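User: Structure with flavin mononucleotide, tokens only please.
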Amino acid sequence: MIPIQTSLTKLLGIESPIVSAPMAGASGGALAAQVTLAGGFGFVGAGYEPPDSLTRELGIARQLLQHTDDDAPLPIGVGFLAWQLEKSPDRAEQLLSIVLEHRVQAVWLAFGQDLGRWADYVRNHDKNAGSAKAVKIFVQLSTVEQAHWAIKECKADVIVAQGNEAGGHGLGASLPLLTLCPLIADVVKSLNGPPLIAAGGLAIGAQIASLLTLGAQGVVLGTRFLLSPESLYTDSHRQALIAADSSQSVRTMAFDYARNTLGWPEGIDGRGLRNGTKLFSPGVMAFTGSTFKSSIIATVVDYERGTDIAVIQKKLAEAIKTGDNTRMVVWAGSGVGLMTKTMPAQDIVNELHEECVRHLRGAGDLVVNA
Ligand SMILES: Cc1cc2nc3c(=O)[nH]c(=O)nc-3n(C[C@H](O)[C@H](O)[C@H](O)COP(=O)(O)O)c2cc1C
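Assistant:
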């Protein structure tokens, strides 16, 4: 791999500015470790799971990374949904203690009323606070105001700008990444802030090259890594992602009502595949005609029609019981239509990195030497 050097790669000691997102229920220790082994940086998502699961996933990562030096940081991160931490401070302390015991290199915070509280908790309990080995705090955000806060008040070590295209949860009113990234890059520059990395809708190396020229020092991909065998998504989820086109990726609260995962901060919704299309029916995955105009009614349409939430929840529970994939919840960013196959996570990092290098070099060729 020809290294790409940015302030992010220097901070983390990595060769590629490619980060795999923490994804609740989808990114465990295997995915995070493989991304790091390929030269990028991987995150475990510690969403709704109990502390035991986090311990298990960190154990998997530790083994894959052959990490035996207890003095060295474990070169992956763990991402938390801050509203879940706020819901149960006891559980929060247990989870954060596990992360500190395992000496992970980074903690990612997003979606809470009081992110600063958790950043402070980590810093106050980190034996290496103040040194180069200290846990690095990543803060994911979607507005210029939040960027000001994250730099000035929270003193984040890395800022993650999440655009509207992002799979999974995010600010419904967030700007597209092509606008958000340079806006936040200006804030970072004016405040002499930390590395900025960009997230949302990324699928190919050319997009990464463009963001590096827009002021980002790295990128975050979630959905693309769901299409690796190391993610915790099932084969049915992956088939749905491969079959989907980008117009099926929609922002909605339908899935949170259906799953009863409510409590997100105001303005947050989730981007996933508008389910219920024929693409989700077993046996017709290869169907390539009209997509969500299909006649199968499922969660999003039910929700938009005002169907009683209890009914929507019951339908989802029945679908899970009978193995009916038409109601499957598949989070996916708007880049999903650019994704065509499942690949090992290390190959994804290598492919994205090589494409990015090629496009950065190719862009230079556009300039005519006088
Ligand atoms: C399945 C899934 C789960 C996610 N879970 C989390 C999470 O637990 N915490 C978080 O901060 N972001 C989460 N995200 C959002 C990611 O951090 C990131 O912003 C997003 O994946 C980037 O967009 P992309 O999926 O289009 O690459 C999730 C995304 C997906 C697809």
